[in-house]
Amino acid sequence: MFLLKIRQWIFAVVMITVVCIGAEENKDRNSPIVLQNSQVKLVVDSHDFSLVQISDLRQNIDYVKEPGSSLFEIALWDPQNPTTEQNPPTWYSTRPGTMIMGNMADKYIFTYQKDSEKQILHLKYIQIPVRQKENMVDVEVTITLPNHSSLFEWHLSMTNSSDLQLYEVHFPSLSGLASSKPGSEKTDYIAAPVYSGVKMKSPRTTKGASQGLNEYPGAGSSIQMLSYCDDFGGGLYLASYDSKGYRKTFDSRPTASKKAFKWFIIHYADLPAYQKWQLPYPIICGPIQGDWYDAAKIYRKQFASKNWTPLYKRTDIAPWFRDLSVWFQGQDRIRDDTKPMAAFTDHLIKLREMLGEDYGFHWYLWQKYYKHDYRYPNYFPSQIGFKEAIRHVQKAGVHVMPYTNIHLFDQNMPMWKQAKGDTMAVRELDGKITKGGSCGTMAPMCMSVTKWRNIIINIERKLVRCYNVDGIYFDELYCYPNFCYSANHNHPCFGGTYFTAGMRDVLRRVKELKAWKKKKPVIMGEQMGETYMKNCNALLNGHADQKMDSIPIFQAVNADNTTEVGMFLNSAEVGSHNTFMSSIGFNLVRGRQLGWFNFDQFDITKPEYSWQLAKLREFCSVRRAGQEFLFFGEFLRTPDLSSLSTTTRVVQLWITGFKNKQKYEVPVVLAECYRSPQGSIGIVLTNHTAQDQNISIPWNAKDWGISVGTKIKRQDYKKGQWDKSTSFTLANKLIIMVPAYSPMLVKISLQK
Length: 752
Description:
The chain is α+β, with helices and mostly antiparallel strands.
């Protein structure tokens, strides 16, 4: 008891007195509010709690070029009258409403605490007026700085006494940002995890929304993080550590001067919040040393590693899926006739025989209708002979995964009326059913509705039980997370976690179906994202993530937590040796299971594709030999290939119907680096030219973890076999000879 009292007394001593500042008192108060440790400093204006400065003390870099912005913006609205007057007139929200900011408060109160581990700053904005003086909102922003960290943890709560509902919160809303490093205005960029990742150059003049820095979960952000990099070794980190999957938007935009930028996260209200509301997860923001890769590894360590289980620790991975190298996809276009189905089946088996190993087959148009994106979810009965075909190809080593869509319902069916589809649909603010994108009469269903989720689960149960499929595919798993304004659904007005929770419920229940019996389920979802990795084995990005200049942000975080599949190739690309090798090589080095080849574009049973077939076999063997890296391994920083010559490759983007031909300047050898769970380093390479390439790669001890001068063992895999291992002292450069038009793997291990 005595020790407890002493601790309480010590804590009381380090508490700093609460300071109350009225509007009049602000005029005479000139001392800023500072939160600082040995690494970083945050300065807030004491008059209105606006942002003054964020500094990296280690590198002597300031990141606020234009001080004075509010730390938050809050939108309130009247759902019955959403076009209410705007205050102030500048409106950034996605809907009309009334915006309030921190500089509008009547009083400002701050509390500062410090103990042996951290400092905490409480900023209280008292009586922010909303329309009329009697309508008030109080806001509290809490900023925590651990003693040994450069990253601040941000929280926000509010008490709403107005007659308007909370719509959305922009927080932290940090404006006037830019590195003070000389020359950074020409080199800086924002790295955003759009699919794998993109560099948004010139953030001081470029609007982020046009670059796809948008919605989470799905429809843009594959993880919950942005990083700003000045390209001189300094930058800022912005992330939300939200494991429940609340709907949010990441954005950036230039300031009026075009000399700085503003970035923020939009958080959507999960309650009407007439009284109290608080942000249900922390925001982490502050200076970092390094670039987007270092930011990705911070996110991995602090968030991803605490929420997702790496593949090497999981016991639910089907052995066939773990060992799989390549996927094909296609459909039987023949109408109800068992003989054509049998011919199609024979074709799949012939492909298996010629490839020489098992493959996965993503089967489209297996259902009774012969048109894609049509009549969902009325799939049954299947095409005649489908069940028998599955059994036949499985015996030959083909693993079947049929197509299904997770959230669309065709309104032009009797089933729509019978199931009362209108009661399950996502609705707009005006009460109308939301349109289902490009799929004509399709309507997106609200994932909060149990009845809809049961419909989907029953479809998958029948596929597993009656057709004995090897896996399930969910198209549009990472679809646009629609707002739903239906008053009859069991969810808040539009924010919250109901979208994510509904998707996760479907995946979990499908994974746990008793119909799988002794099979370990394989579930694949469309596009790239972290949200559903627990119950979704693989992510199909073969038709979305095609850009060869993408940066591997997602992979640096989650390569060993999930499995990616494929890159789409059309007939012209398959026919070109150079393009075929560069595209499939990009697949391999990024760690994806290969292919997702369509029969219409690449039928490897045809004699004219014998060269491509032989090369595909080589790629499959490298992927299998490098399983400890390419399936189970952690993705490390890309090797420095700047000394290599480059060549031009043209990719026709599927997402634009192959109308957009994108040129890329890429090194003559593509390469990525991985660390196995046992600590070995694997460098996976592809020479996509017709000449042998003798290359020199600088050894990156900082990011790869083995120091120059260490006694190591090296073993190379190429042309389908491992060579003899050699032991030597690790030098500062790795010399590798990569044969023409070939993939290979270099394994570096510590000598025991």
